[in-house]
Specification:
The protein is an alpha/beta fold. Strands 2-3-4-1-5 form a five-stranded parallel beta sheet, with helices on both faces. Strands 6-8-7 form a three-stranded antiparallel beta sheet.
Length: about 400
């Protein structure tokens, strides 16, 4: 098969050729976007799931829908070093410039620039992009308390968006990396705008622990956000994700071959793309693609994943942290009780608290329920067993 025509996209956040199994989530997001256009009450969404389930793809897809519905969008990818206020400085300037071309809201935009100048000056953020002719509005968003100031700034921007009939949709990926103070301030700001029925809509994506993080930041977060769970695809949808792109290019794959792919990938979208891409590139000359073709190509997939995707993540851990996750894998399939891991390592559970916290902070494991842990990266336990248990 022609490698140039390979339809599969195993890159991080790359849109797959067939976006399947997420119709309900997309439909609900579209409803919220259109409700914002009508001035109706809206509910923020936080997409939760493990790595490789397609959260970023969904977030990007929803942002496109928002743009198509005349929303002004802000897209932020969070990381361990992000300062939310600093990132918002340039994003809010761009937002206000876009709204400033609308004739009937120019006065409101000028006031919003003035409040923004006051806000960012208070938090010692460079305001070089805001004209020096604009005076800061003293007494608004300049108390130095991030929660109250960000809320005041968002309300002013929300009033502009409402007058312009151009809702503002904010998209933040990897929410788990936000500092607790930043997340708390964002929740307060969104809550204030929701109370005033202002058209500021939020879509976030992150690891499963984000739900607990949000609740810890503000107890009302569970009512402010909907938390759609993004998981592995059901068997039929996982098969469709492979079969449709292949058949669209007039090639064919057997049911046994599809079963084999689902067995290896467990229905996780990222791995489906890896297997699809490798099988296509394997140079299979005789159609259809068979179970044996998949088995043969899988050797190459595992080699690439083990030496790239998985190993890169393992290398982020210290030796003690590696010992901890290897112990988890040696106990079998998760979730794992933290006490069992400690017993396996010959330690008291309390002795491992710092190690456990660091691994969670690095986004490698999470707690699905009290006293339990599991990997945030699907199939990572299989990789660890291949590397540290099953090797001679």
């Amino acid at each position: 098969m022609d490698r140039i025509k390979n339809p599969f996209n195993p890159g991080a956040g790359s849109k797959p050729p067939a976006l399947v199994g997420r119709d309900q989530i997309i439909e609900e997001a579209t409803i919220q976007i259109k409700r914002a256009n009508l001035g109706n009450s809206i509910r923020a969404q936080m997409l939760l799931g493990l790595r490789g389930v397609g959260k970023t793809v969904l977030l990007n897809h929803i942002s496109t829908i928002a743009e198509e519905n005349k929303h002004v969008i802000t897209v932020i990818e969070s990381n361990e070093d992000i300062e939310l206020v600093a990132v918002l400085q340039s994003e809010i300037q761009q937002l206000l410039r876009k709204l400033s071309v609308i004739e009937n809201v120019k006065d409101k935009v000028l006031r919003a620039f003035s409040v923004a100048k006051s806000f960012f000056s208070t938090f010692n953020i460079d305001i070089g992009g805001i004209s020096i002719e604009i005076e800061p509005e003293f007494g608004t968003a300049d108390s130095g308390r991030l929660e109250s100031d960000l809320a005041q700034l968002f309300v002013v921007i929300g009033e502009v968006a409402k007058a312009a009939n151009r809702p503002w949709s904010i998209f933040i990926d990897e929410v788990q990396y936000l500092k607790s103070s930043d997340l708390s301030a964002l929740i307060v700001a969104l809550h204030r705008c929701s109370q005033k029925n202002l058209p500021i809509l939020f879509f976030g994506a992150g690891l499963p622990q984000v739900a607990a993080m949000s609740g810890d930041a503000k107890s009302y977060a569970e009512r402010l956000f909907a938390y759609p769970s993004i998981g592995a695809l059901p068997v039929d949808e996982a098969k469709k994700a492979i079969q449709e792109p292949i058949e669209k290019l007039n090639e064919h794959i057997t049911d046994d071959a599809l079963d084999e792919i689902v067995k290896y990938t467990k229905g996780y979208p990222y791995f489906l793309q890896e297997w699809g891409a490798e099988i296509w590139n394997a140079g299979i000359e005789q159609m259809p693609i068979t179970q044996q073709d998949v088995i043969q190509a899988s050797k190459s997939v595992f080699y690439k994943l083990d030496n790239g995707f998985f190993n890169v993540r393992l290398d982020r851990l210290t030796n003690k942290e590696k010992d901890y996750v290897i112990a988890m894998a040696k106990l079998g399939n998760g979730p794992y009780k933290s006490g069992d891991i400690a017993n396996y390592l010959g330690k008291r559970n309390s002795e491992l608290g710092n190690v456990r916290a660091k691994i969670i902070e690095k986004g490698m494991i999470y707690s699905p329920s009290y006293g339990e842990l599991d990997f945030t990266v699907p199939l990572f336990d299989d990789f660890l067993r291949r590397k540290f248990v099953n090797t001679p």
